[in-house]
């Protein structure tokens, strides 16, 4: 559990209803500013599931216009009032009576910021930044009013299908519109190192679904696939024509059609481990679908796909443990799946 969550648990005590309201506020704020996919893993070990995130993001107003998906550097978020300013815009959907780590309710905290000059100081910093960069931005250029949202479907979608029975996560606000629905050719790699070499040597082509597997909690500790995602998104053609799918995770700064937390992970025998070169992968963000729909470039029925995957599973063996001793070996042995929160199960 992140330190702030731990502190909050101690402060508000064992009341489950209070914890749920506080957690809801946290996640609702995240939808407003386009939360990263990693926030799902941090919260999933509590009382919610990936489906909870997907439900909360549907219809959520996305207000923050900063990079990587928006126009302005991240520092401008603070100059515009930061998270409190987002919460002011969406406070009609927040539990303002929820207790926080300060010992006060959320509503009391927000009111205190209005009274102590916080927003006036932010305005002064914004004016200085405007002068420094030769801009003339207002707070509303950076944090949109609720009724002028950049989008109304939040920022995160949880995809499911025969490739990800427990789910996989995409930050769709950073995904090109043309990749919201596609059928792609599978290119599986068993480590990020293998994959990034193929990308840099131009062995990955438009229309590919690039897989990096065995990088989940049990496989390698679930590191970020940052370098590969950046190599792809920096290529103007590949960044708009391929998908990167992994049981690992991504940086909050990642852009492009990148799908992480694919569960169950490869090391646990998830379907991602059974993908072969030339399989057809169907991605549909709006319909929340991620599935294998063909083999060797040919479409198959769902029943045929199930039979093919069953035969592949008979031949599959897990990789040798990457870590043979120490805390990382304990983590790889006991870690739950990415979509369950990658916590220790014992």
Write up what this structure looks like.
The protein is an alpha/beta fold. It has two domains: 3-148, no CATH class; 156-340, 3-Layer(bba) Sandwich (Glucose Oxidase, domain 1). Helix content is 36%, strand content 15%. The chain is built from 13 helices and nine strands. The chain has helices spanning 3-12, 16-32, 38-44, 50-57, 75-79, 82-89, 106-115, 118-133, 139-142, 192-200, 226-233, 302-315, 326-334; strands spanning 156-161, 164-171, 181-189, 208-212, 243-246, 258-263, 280-284, 289-295, 298-299. A nine-stranded mixed sheet has the order 1-2-6-5-4-3-7-8-9. Helix 10 packs parallel to helix 11. The protein is globular and about 65 Å long. The model is unreliable at 1-14 and 34-45 (pLDDT under 50).
Give a short synopsis of this structure.
The chain is α/β, with parallel strands linked by helices. The protein has 13 helices and 9 strands.
Topology (SSEs and partners):
Layout: H1 3-12, H2 16-32, H3 38-44, H4 50-57, H5 75-79, H6 82-89, H7 106-115, H8 118-133, H9 139-142, E1 156-161, E2 164-171, E3 181-189, H10 192-200, E4 208-212, H11 226-233, E5 243-246, E6 258-263, E7 280-284, E8 289-295, E9 298-299, H12 302-315, H13 326-334
Parallel strand pairs: 3-4, 4-5, 5-6
Antiparallel strand pairs: 1-2, 2-6, 3-7, 7-8, 8-9
Helix pairs in contact: 10-11
